[in-house]
Amino acid sequence: MKLYNHAVFNLGVSLVAGLQVPEIVLIIFGGMIPDVVDSILAGRDQRLFYAIHRTFSHYPWPYLVFYFASYNFEVGQLVAFGALLHVLMDFLTPMGIPLVSPTKRVSLAKIKTGSMFDYILTYCPLLGFLCNLYFTSGNPLFP
Ligand SMILES: [Zn+2]
Question: What separation in Å is there between the alpha carbon of 66 and the centre of ligand 1?
Answer without folding.
Answer: 18
